[in-house]
Amino acid sequence: MAEIVFGVGCSHSPMLGTEPKDWDMRADADRKNPAHPFREGVYTFDELAELRKGENLAAQHTMEKREEKHKKNMDNLELLGKKIADANLDILVVVGDDQRECFMTNASPSFVIYNGETVLNKVMSQHRLDNMSAGVAVAAWTNVPTENDIEYPGVPELANHLAMKLTAAEFDITVCNKMPPASTARTASHMLFAFSITASSMISPIAREWPPCPSSSMISSRPISRRPNGS
User: Fold this and answer.
1) 209 C-beta neighbours (distance < 10 Å), count
2) For the chain, which residues make up each domain, given as ranges?
3) Which of 158, 162, 216 is nearest to 188 (CA)?
4) Mean pLDDT of the chain
């Protein structure tokens, strides 16, 4: 019988894979977005800036502050990876959100369990990168391999077990053994998390996603990529 022995949470923001000097790329995209949810309202960029002007947020955006926050983020991702490795887990369950990265509007199951023999993580096409906002594309290296596709062994027995148990518990799920052809197979919410795990950890995480966007369940044995400079 499986036993839950460790739990942790982590953001999967593209900012975690973006150098401080490039953070303004996200602001450029936000200025073009007409609908920013905040608490109980939805605002344009300018409206939200006016609403929150009393928080003195501009003081947090000096390069010195950015570098300080970035270092804290990287230090804590490293710590997270160490804690996961030290937990000596048999399987790591990663809960995340697809955000239309694998499943599009032509097929939108609320909850998918992937039970394939292998998990393919594909190099992202230049076309797809070109169609992303600059602030997201700059961090894509944290989610997909930059040179060659990578294939990981799956654990279909566990996936099928989860499918049976969830169905018995009246969850509305879909099971598939292949991902949509245009997808990179793994999503940012999975891979930013896996990025914090060192290659020597050799943990097999099963990634399980929940709504509001469609979701999937997969296996990998190591982080999928390193920074382009090899670090």
Assistant:
1) 27
2) 14-219
3) 216
4) 75
Could you say which DSSP state residue 122 is in? P
- Hey, is 124 helix, strand or coil? coil
What is the residue type of 39? R
Q: What is the phi-psi region of residue 100: left when phi exceeds 0, alpha when psi lies from -120 to 50, beta otherwise?
A: left
* pTM across the whole model: 0.69
Instruction: State which residues of the chain have pLDDT below 70.
Output: 1-2, 92-96, 181-231
Q: What are phi and psi of 130, to 5 degrees?
A: -65, -25
Cα 93 off chain centre by: 13
- How is residue 224 written in tokens? 């999928």
CA dist., res. 47 & res. 35, Å (int)? 10
Pairing relation of β-strands 204-209 and 91-96?
parallel
- pLDDT tens, 53-72? 999 888 888 999 999 999 99
SS3 content of the chain, % helix, strand, coil (to 5): 40, 15, 45
Strand partners, 207: 94, 218
Helices (H), 55-208: 63-86, 126-130, 134-137, 156-168, 188-195
Residues paired with 80 in a beta bridge: none
Tell which residue, 54, 56, 32, has the closest CA to residue 44.
Answer: 32
